[in-house]
Predict the 3D structure of the following.
Amino acid sequence: MPIYEYQCKDCGHRFDELRSYDEPDPPCNKCESLKTAKLVSRTSFSLKGGGWYKDHYGLKPSPKKEKSE
């Protein structure tokens, strides 16, 4: 299950919750308000290097296989 970041619409408190995608938004753990919103957070996923678009990864010919008899 992923960790989601929420913010309370009443008091502005930000908090993290480990929740399933389809669960409803949790109540604020500071003021107990049910008016919370899921925030869009940065991800830890990062691509390193020149990238497939620079080295033409998709355009390289695939190696030919030799048939054995």
